[in-house]
Structures are given as C-alpha cells and as structure tokens.
Design brief:
7-stranded mixed beta sheet; binds pyridoxal-5'-phosphate
Length: about 350
C-alpha cells in the first residue's frame, strides 16, 4: 500500500528538512549472483567457521528474506516495514528523523518504557510528560491538550511497560484523530502477542501518521538477535532507511530471525506464548496471597507489576532463591513497585514459595 500524495506532504512537513533533503549513505550493492569485488571484503570465509556462514561478507542492509518474513508475519507490505536492531533502534531513528535538537518535543505517558525519553534527550528534543491516570489509563484529553506545534512524536505503549495494562483503544483513536497532520503517534506493541487486544497494524490505511513498533525480543524469544520492526506509511519508512547505519542487521541475527519466523516454527512459538499467559495468571492468583504484596496489577504482557509492602525485602527474598526482579520503587506513581517477568513453571514456583503465597 502507498500513502496518498497529500499524506506524504503532511509527513514530510513534520520531518527535519535536513533529513528530507539528505542523500543517504550508498551501501555496496547487494547482488548475490555476482562475485563481490566491490566492498573491500576478504574473499575467504573465516577459517574457523563453517564455510556457509559467509561472515567475511557485509550483510544485506535490509535483508530481503527477513523483510518478507516479517511483512507476512505482521500482515503488512515490505515498504511499510523497517528492520532494526530491536525496536530500540526504531525509537532512536524516529526521534532523530522527526525531532530537531533544541526545537521539537515528544509526548510520553509515564510510567512507561524509558527509551522514549532517553532517545529524545540524546537528540536534544524536549520531553513533555502526560502521566497515565487512574489504573494507568491513557489521559487522552491531556495528550491532546499537550499537542502544540513543537510536538512531533507521541509515544504510546500498549500493553504498557512496566504497568502491564493495554491502553483503551477508543482513547488511542481520539489521540490519532487529534494528531492528524500534526504529529506522529507511535504505538509500541512490544507485548502485543500476550494480549487479547488487536494490533493497530490494521489501522495504518486510516492513519498515515500512525507508527507501530513490534519486536522479536519478547514473545518470539529472540532478544539476543536484536531484531525489531517499525511499521508505518512507506514515506516514514523511507525517511528512516536514510538514517539507519549501513549494514545494521548482522547476518547471524537475520538468519536466526528468519528461522524463527518459518511457518513450521509457529506452533511452538504460539504454545510458548500460551504457556506464559497461563503461568502469568497462576502467578498472579498466587501472589495476591503473599503477605509482601499489596496488589498485583492485571497484566496483558509477560510480566506482573506488584505493589509491595517493601520493594527491597521482596527483591531480597527473590534473590535468596537466585531470582532477579526489577526494582521500580521510588519512581513517580509506582510506590514500592516491583516488576516480575513470568518465568518457567519451576521459576514461578520458586517465586510463590519465596513470597510465602501459601493458602
Ligand atoms: C523491551 C521493550 C522494547 C525494546 O525491545 P527491543 O526490540 O529488544 O529493542 C521496546 N519497547 C518496550 C515497551 C519494551 O518493553
């Protein structure tokens, strides 16, 4: 699919003029049928590696086979998709392409994923906070009120990290309507596979300023491969492809991702996701009985946010059985919060014992 010319003009007017005008780095042509004497590589594979790994060769910048696999996995076209080193790279590229240092701003809705603000600060963009409201619901009225002309990106994370809840889709839609022609709205769906909510990917045709982040790091179990996707109108993707570092995707990473996305591996991946969701509910139910836990927030992700009586003692009890959870205490609106990732059944049993959840 392709955005209408009017949409293109609106998107390009939001972008940094110097990025729109930028001549991107011209990487060596990728032509697998030809013998490569144009990229200053050694002609032999590493002698310690199997001969087919081809690690002496630069990888394809946006590996075509991986792009095709991701496009089919997410139900979009390859022109709507950028592969990056995790969605972290997507966050960085979006910030750099749309925010001028010292002039532009992003809206974030804390408590939320930290990289949105970090990327903005690296770029010299202002960070406008519109905190989540009661039960960590999106304050769409607040976001819309904060949409001044300096705001180029609105970061929405659903299901949200670290709170675990999905943002209300009607509220997201109101933000999308208000931001049309004014700012990009990015919905980070890093945990979407663990949620019953439908992906915003289906709304791309309606909203040329909608951007979706997906990753293979969480539900697909490939965090070490560092593969994430930015899904957006082709105009947005073309801008990001201009500024992604050359040869960003290491070949062992793209090979691993392609393999994971093969249809024959789907049943295993789906079964693992289902297992995590059922373990999450078992753990949640048990933790409500812990004397150390005041509240377990509902979660549509692969982690639980706990309001504890004392975060330090909960972390110590977990550490005593060799488990590490994430301390969120002292952060605004989080109190004595601990974020606990759902583990294997055996690890979850250890959590239940360590936090004295017996009936
Ligand atoms: C983990 C996480 C990411 C980063 O994922 P990578 O693809 O591994 O970079 C992005 N967004 C959220 C909300 C996350 O929790």
């Amino acid at each position: 699919m392709s955005a209408r010319p009017a949409d293109d003009a609106e998107i390009l007017a939001l972008a940094r003029p110097d990025i729109v005008a930028l001549a991107p780095y011209e990487h060596a042509v990728f032509a697998p049928t030809l013998e490569r004497l144009h990229a200053n590589e050694l002609p032999w594979p590493p002698h310690s590696e199997p001969p087919d790994t081809a690690l002496h060769r630069y990888p394809e910048p946006q590996p075509a086979a991986l792009l095709a696999a991701l496009a089919s996995h997410y139900g979009v076209s390859t022109e709507q998709l950028l592969v990056g080193r995790g969605s972290d790279e997507g966050i960085d590229l979006l910030t750099r392409a749309f925010c001028r240092a010292g002039e532009d701003a992003v809206i974030i809705c804390p408590p939320t994923f930290g990289m949105y603000a970090v990327a903005a600060r690296i770029q010299g963009a202002a960070v406008v906070n519109v905190p989540l409201g009661k039960d960590y619901a999106l304050d769409d009225t607040g976001v819309i009120a904060a949409l001044d002309p300096s705001v180029k990106l609105v970061w929405l994370c659903s299901p949200n990290n670290p709170t675990g809840n999905s943002l209300d889709s009607a509220a997201i839609r109101r933000v999308l309507e208000a931001a049309r022609g004014r700012a990009l709205v990015v919905v980070d769906e890093a945990y979407s596979e663990f949620s019953a909510q439908t992906s915003w990917v289906g709304s791309l045709a309606e909203y040329p300023h909608l951007v979706i982040l997906r990753t293979l790091s969480k539900a697909q179990g490939l965090a070490g491969a560092r593969i994430g996707a930015v899904i957006a109108a082709p105009t947005v993707i073309r801008l990001l492809r201009k500024i992604i570092p050359p040869y960003a995707i290491a070949r062992p990473a793209s090979t691993a991702a392609e393999h994971a996305l093969q249809n024959s591996n789907r049943p295993i991946a789906l079964a693992r996701i289902a297992r995590v969701c059922s373990e999450r509910e078992r753990l949640r139910e048990a933790l409500t009985r812990s004397p150390w836990v005041k509240r377990v927030y509902p979660s549509e992700a692969n982690f639980l946010l706990l309001e504890t009586t004392n975060a330090r003692s909960v972390l110590d009890r977990l550490q005593a059985v060799a488990l590490l959870a994430r301390d969120f205490s002292g952060k605004p609106a989080l109190g004595e919060a601990v974020r606990l990732t759902v583990g294997t059944p055996e690890q979850n049993n250890r959590v239940i014992t360590a936090l004295e959840c017996s009936t």
